[in-house]
């Protein structure tokens, strides 16, 4: 599953450069690097207030991002200047860990710089602005971090700011892409329950006059969101259907953001190989139909949404007991509660399977959630059917030992640069790896629905690689991507369309799962050979998670003292 609806395309419009003193940039030292990074992260929180709320820091809960052309340009220029300074730093004589942190900080800056040069989401992607509205509300609701009255006051300020922000968005969108506009329209027209139901839980302590003012601001914001969608719909016919970034740009992201020792052609080949393998493994099941979730095979089908969520969540304890009995991983004492919640409809267009909300990097609350689509006993949605028949594979992916555990550990790193690094290839690769790790260690019976589901999940994650590469290099159309998810990945049309939409709107996100799993398995084999008789799987897992959400080429340097993959990635 994907994480909370954060899109690297939005990063351009939300990042800010810290103000650096001459003394800080005059010396090429690890201390100067860390000062630049620290100040950058602090200013970043101010420039992207909605994302900051989502990450658990609530200082600027009453603000939206400034999308004015001047602000967008200023952020773009500042990020590029900082990137150039980091690139120019002389690291001869630096310790290994310091050199690694310089590489990581540079990679963190590459994404927004690339977005400014190539993707221009402020001009091309209307979903940027609808997501700002939905996340502005959602980030105030998902945790009870403050009294209702305090959060209601912040929400009021954000609601009042939405019409002006959307008016700016209309002016910014000089080159909108039809597919992104369609997703934005669908999201905007699904947003009402978030505002009229979920948000209203904060109004319970208001006086009648306060409530009336609050409701007026809410309704004005909703009217502006609906008008934004109407305007996009009127312009749809004149928009290009989709605009790929091209192979050269795609390869740039692989090398300089993800630090991957692979190019687009090699990545597509990896996807084809793994797709063939998992498709074949499905056929080798005693009953291949077990790979297609079927609630009718379940002993008990939940009667309603509440029963469904409770049954889903309760199975986590079985996974925890197995991990402990098999001594497979260390679970720190600070790990909080993981729960299952219903997916807000506003996020369904690009998150058909739901999404994960781990604790934020600034979060004082150590709990996390997985948002699953609205329950229906006869739903055609793959994820709902899987959750009814056998919820543990997806539950382990999202919870423990998957995303929730891994990200919680990463949030506790003392190294600030590594704590802020969130390499999605590692994050999604780890969660996908844990699915098969539990299967291979005997948690699921051979030939069971769980084994079939794990094979199908890996199969369609392999299909994601092909879709991501071919869609963004311009080899495939969107309709070809949908068909590929159905025919090669084994998904129903609803899930396949949502998957293709997610792939189109978030370049490189969909390739991360299988690519990361492949890299982790490769590193596992090398780690075992290196450790010899001292090898334990638990030690590998603990060592890997101890380093945070870092690229696997960096993990190889840290765990095996081998920088060769990183050198391949960056062309040295």
How does this structure look, described?
There is one protein chain. It contains 27 helices and 4 strands. It is mainly alpha-helical and 572 residues long. The chain folds into 2 domains: 2-238, no CATH class; 247-516, no CATH class. It is globular, with a radius of gyration of 23 Å. The two termini are 34 Å apart. The longest helix is centred in the middle third of the chain and has 28 residues, at 208-235. α9 (178-188) runs antiparallel to α11 and α21 packs antiparallel against α22 (478-487). The chain has a 4-stranded mixed β-sheet with strand order 1-3-4-2.
Q: How many distinct folded domains?
A: 2
Q: Mean pLDDT across all residues, rounded? A: 91
Q: Largest sheet, order of strands side by side?
A: 1-3-4-2
> How many strand segments?
4
Give the count of helical stretches: 27
- The global form is globular
Largest beta-sheet characterization = 4 strands, mixed
Low-confidence stretches: 4-26
> In percent, how much strand structure appears in the residues?
under 5%
Class from secondary-structure proportions: mainly alpha
Q: Helicity range of the residues?
A: 55-70%
- What value does the Rg take, in angstroms? 23 Å
Distance between the termini: 34 Å
Question: What descriptive keywords fit this protein?
Answer:
about 575 residues; mainly alpha; 2 domains; four-stranded mixed β-sheet; 27 helices; 4 strands; about 5% strand; globular
């Amino acid at each position: 599953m994907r994480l909370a609806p954060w899109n690297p395309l939005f990063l351009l419009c939300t990042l800010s450069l810290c103000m650096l003193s001459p003394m800080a940039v005059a010396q090429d030292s690890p201390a100067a690097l860390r000062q630049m990074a620290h100040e950058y992260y602090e200013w970043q929180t101010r420039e992207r207030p909605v994302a900051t709320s989502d990450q658990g820091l609530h200082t600027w809960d009453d603000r939206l991002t400034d999308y004015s052309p001047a602000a967008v340009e200023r952020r773009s220029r500042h990020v590029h200047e900082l990137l150039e300074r980091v690139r120019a730093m002389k690291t001869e004589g630096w310790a290994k860990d310091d050199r690694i942190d310089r590489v990581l900080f540079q990679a963190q800056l590459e994404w927004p710089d690339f977005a400014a040069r190539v993707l221009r989401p402020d001009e091309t992607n209307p979903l940027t602005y609808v997501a700002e509205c939905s996340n502005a509300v959602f980030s105030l609701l998902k945790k009870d971090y403050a009294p209702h009255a305090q959060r209601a006051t912040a929400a009021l300020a954000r609601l009042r700011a939405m019409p002006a922000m959307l008016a700016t968005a209309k002016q910014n969108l000089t080159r909108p892409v039809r597919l992104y506009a369609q997703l934005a329209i669908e999201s905007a027209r699904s947003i009402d329950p978030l505002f009229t139901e979920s948000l209203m839980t904060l109004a319970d302590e208001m006086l009648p006059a306060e409530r009336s003012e609050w409701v007026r601001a809410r309704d004005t914001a909703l009217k502006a969101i609906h008008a934004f969608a109407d305007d996009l719909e009127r312009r749809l016919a004149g928009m290009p259907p989709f605009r790929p970034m091209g192979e050269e740009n795609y390869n740039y992201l692989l090398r300089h953001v993800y630090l991957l020792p692979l190019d687009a052609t090699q990545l597509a080949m990896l996807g084809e190989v793994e797709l063939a393998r998992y498709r074949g493994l499905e056929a080798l099941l005693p009953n291949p139909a077990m790979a297609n979730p079927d609630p009718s095979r379940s002993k008990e089908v939940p009667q309603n949404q509440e029963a469904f969520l409770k049954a889903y969540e309760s199975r986590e304890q079985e996974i925890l007991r197995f991990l402990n009995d098999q001594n497979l991983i260390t679970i720190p004492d600070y790990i909080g509660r993981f729960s299952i919640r219903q997916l807000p409809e506003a996020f369904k267009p690009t998150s058909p399977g739901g999404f994960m909300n781990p604790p934020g990097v600034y979060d004082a609350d150590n709990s996390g959630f997985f948002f699953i689509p609205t329950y229906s006993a006869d739903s055609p949605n793959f994820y709902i059917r899987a959750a009814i028949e056998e919820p543990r594979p997806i539950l382990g992916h999202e919870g423990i030992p998957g995303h929730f555990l891994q990200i919680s550990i990463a949030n506790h790193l003392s190294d600030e640069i590594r704590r802020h690094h969130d390499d999605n290839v590692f994050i999604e690769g780890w969660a996908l790896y844990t699915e098969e790790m539990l299967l291979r260690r005997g948690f699921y019976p051979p030939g069971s629905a769980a084994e079939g589901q794990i094979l199908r999940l890996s199969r369609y994650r392999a299909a994601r690689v092909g879709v991501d590469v071919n869609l963004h290099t311009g080899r495939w159309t969107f309709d070809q991507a949908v068909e590929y998810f159905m025919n090669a990945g084994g998904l129903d049309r609803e899930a396949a369309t949502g998957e293709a939409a997610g792939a189109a709107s978030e370049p490189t996100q969909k390739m991360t799962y299988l690519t990361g799993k492949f890299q982790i398995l490769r590193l596992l084999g090398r780690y075992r050979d290196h450790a010899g008789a001292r090898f334990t799987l638990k030690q590998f897992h603990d060592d890997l998670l101890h380093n945070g959400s870092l690229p696997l080429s960096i993990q190889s340097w840290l765990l095996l003292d081998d920088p060769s993959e990183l050198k391949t990635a960056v062309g040295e």
